[in-house]
Amino acid sequence: MSPAAGSSRWCPTPEQLMILEEMYKTGVRTPNASQIQHITAQLSLYGKIECKNVFYWFQNHKARDRQKLRRKLNKQLQLQQQQEVVHYNQQSHHFLDSFGSLPASSTQQLPFYNSAALNCSSGGSWRCIRTSNNLEGA
Amino acid sequence: MSPAAGSSRWCPTPEQLMILEEMYKTGVRTPNASQIQHITAQLSLYGKIECKNVFYWFQNHKARDRQKLRRKLNKQLQLQQQQEVVHYNQQSHHFLDSFGSLPASSTQQLPFYNSAALNCSSGGSWRCIRTSNNLEGA
DNA sequence: GCAAATTAATGATTTATTCAAG
DNA sequence: CTTGAATAAATCATTAATTTGC
Questions:
Q1: Same domain, B33 and B75
Q2: Rounded-to-integer distance, Cα A28 and Cα B105, Å
Q3: Most A CBs within 10 Å: which of B53, B82, B118, B130, as the mutation test of the A interface?
Q4: Where does the Homeobox domain lie (chains A, B) (predicted)?
Q5: What are phi and psi of A20, to 5 degrees?
Q6: pTM of the predicted model, to two decimals?
Q7: Domain limits at A93?
Q8: Does A36 touch chain B (CB under 8 A)?
Q9: What pLDDT score does B79 carry?
């Protein structure tokens, strides 16, 4: 659409986006009509917006959230399987076991992420080919 | 730690920092294990570094970025709330209150909602009263 | 100018939350 | 309802900036 005549579809301002995400994070998923009206009123202080935009935003966000998670889970399952094959010639099985080599804080349980990745050092013999940070394969 | 024995924590070289920020600027946020390995390999050309350093750097950078934005937004919200007029005459008050009355998500949601709500425009005379989502207490 | 003292940044850990599978 | 996996939020801890008194 012609630039001077306003866009054909709603484009959230950063403030609007943050507020929406904040609401989403605190548990709002499918606001009812009344809630949508309140939210729209609040967001309208930061830019042009209509109730249907709010309604659709929550619909889409919820859906895409789930989608993203599903894909991520699949990816990581595949990755983990690959890596297990790659450097499994020694040590215990299950990559989560190899945690003993992180900074020895006595009461430490596995805190974060894939320890196989965290424990890789720059001196090590990494041989990763093909980066192509093309996530979202599946 | 003893002076000759190396520092207790990673300190990024200017080159490493530049590369990391460049990646962040182009959209890298939570690299997976494989990506972290690639990045670490690349950065190790400029100084000692481990995968966990890369992992932490993105975690922290992303979090503090959000934090900064959130603080800015809160200032604006507080300003807005000072000027806000309490409306109070009809229907539910805090939009979060009416959670109890949300349509049970068990089955199908109303697919296209209340047309009155969808058609409401931001030009209307809606007024929100304080939601007091204490975002980021400052 | 220069360190000791103080404050700001930021690396590293811990804790809480989230989603979905069982 | 419980639990596994991932990660965002909150927090701790150390290094860098800076302020300060000499």
A1: yes
A2: 13
A3: B118
A4: 13-68
A5: -60, -45
A6: 0.60
A7: 10-100
A8: yes
A9: 67
